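User: Modeling request: complex.
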Amino acid sequence: MSTAERTAGRSAFAEYVSRHWRDWAITVAAFVLAMLIGAILMVVADPQVSANFAYLFTAPQLALGGAWAKVSSAYGALVVGAVGSPQALALTSSKAAPLICAGLGVGLAFRAGLFNIGAQGQAIWGALTAAYIGFTFELPYGLHLVLAVLGGMAAGAVWGGIVGWLKAKTGAHEVIVTIMMNYIASGMLAYLLTTAAFRRPGREDPISPEVHPTAALPSIFGQFHFGFILALAAAAGVWWLLERSTTGFSIRAVGANPNAASTAGMSVAATTTITMTCAGALAGLAGIQFALGPSANGAPVPLTLGLVGTVGFDAITVALLGRSRPVGIVLAGLLFGGLDAGGLAMQSVAQTPLTLTMVLQAVVVLFVAAPALVATILPFLKGRKLKPAAALTGGQA
Amino acid sequence: MKKSLTITAALGALALAFAGCATPPPAATSSASATSSATASDFKACMVSDLGGFDDKSFNQTSHDGLVKAGTELGVQTAQVQSKAEADYAQNIKSMVDGKCNIIITVGFLLGDATQAAAKQYPDVKFAIVDYAYDKPESNLKGLVFNTGEPSFMAGYAAASLSQTGKVGTFGGAKIPSVTAFMTGYAQGVAYYNKAKGKDVKVLGWDDTKKDGSFIPGQNPFQDVAGGKQVANNLVSQGADILLPVAGSAGEGALQVAQASGGKVGSMWVDTDGCVSQAKYCAVIPTSVGKAMDVAVFQAIKDAKEGTFNNTPYVGTLSNAGVFLAPFHDWDSKVTAETKSELDKIKADIVAGTIKIA
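Assistant: Request completed. Predicted assembly structure:
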């Protein structure tokens, strides 16, 4: 009996390792494929370079040299802009921090089997509340920042918690509810920015006063600021929650099979609400990064309609890429932060259009989210037991 | 299955081989970069867009045309960055400073704060910003602003004369001064028409006493063509038959509504002559309210290159042709000779200062 158990255990372990290896290989392969497609797009999109392909056989040095120069300068700029200097690394970290936070929010919900499309709305509430506390009150250093961060996280938690509660009590599908809550959040932001409490005195347009320096996330080196440390701490917290706490066990159990979890005596309703509340707080922390993090000129950007950008949706791709695991999400966030920072250099140095870097990101995610596709293109990666669904949501640990 | 694939591949390879057999012209064999660098100067002019891309057929594109023109006519080097989020403005400007740009042009009111901060931080670099005038600009910061209310006033007058339903409409991308200036002028032009003709043409989408009106909702209103279409549909369903969308590329939504109406509705265009930039919609565009940002941008670059740059804001007016009412094109026959002569008179009055727009 015990021998059989041990054998079963060992084969499960072996299977885990083999699948783990494939996950990594497929992620890397997805990258290489995306870069190749990006390179082709760059060549095709530049009429000067692609025109030379008419002479591919008569004067190959023209066509291939031109294409190589184009592609290498663009990818060179990408790498230099992302990791090429201390400033570049600082920029990458500041771009990555909100993506990591919001990605954790989405990933945590994935682990409980919930599709949190609402990180955008939760981040908006986080940014809005943190900025409000930041520009309204006059408080000493330290206390002001702590209050602004806690306030922002609480606001995000409430916004996410409402969704969890609705799902738990009424069965309302969280995808629809979170999407609608996103609209409500951006509508609320637009409304609040027209009120006297939020609008900068003397301005007609929707822009808030500047956040007091006492509430800004302190800079460590340029744009490498305290928010990035917060993001790493959040990742560690989520790891502890999922892997070491009872609540985390319930979250994973509910995510794997809600019926079984319920039979085992866990409250699916309570777990759903708690998960969405935590997810909301994490996404709220992403919003805080935008509202309180120092920009290139050292001061936080005042609250406007588009301050948080599309972080909530980018977070979904980060969570997918990170396979919903904290370490994976940190790496995926850094990667996307690097692509963002490097994408800027691609524009300003290599004059590659913004749309191309966005296409590059989209192609990476497309391949990563569809491992079967990569395995089909590169058959040697095809395992016997590739489970895209499990890999996608990280349904089991 | 496999065989057909092989044949396709073989055919493809063959086609590629033929396509690749052309003989290169002798000029192409000499390095392209060598020829261009012979004329290029060391002066570098750069541009940072707002969230709208340089292909928005309106605001950013017109400004970018000025940069391109400077590149070809003055031989300066150029570079541009398109912004992805409002939080990126400061970073994007910095990337251009790092790129050793001599003058940086930021496009749009929304970059006002970030541009001023950058001008303070980098006194050696010249800055010019489209659509923002500072009360006390830094010595290296020039605002490029446009009295778009003036041609909008004329557009409002023309719209009122063209309206069959007695209602005209307008909407904006966001409630910022550079947008509401159009709407204010438009509404006052209609009011002027009513007073002159004893008519009662209504303006939907802008209340000139409350200084508020219809705007596209959402976080990216200037790119939201569907949103623009929805707002335009709302105005049309309330009876408006001539529209003035002031929303960058999202204004295309209004052009779509006009085109689908079968000639009942016309929609004007802003920033450029819509019959040129949005040629497929020319039949539904009565006229356009032009804003010669390309001219102002080009001039700022030229001044900076020649060392005559100063921080006095440039103000585009009807009299210096910095703003203009575009030709009527396809609608020329629908605008009466009487209206045309009245518009000429209005233009003269605005230039002379007898008509004031506030």
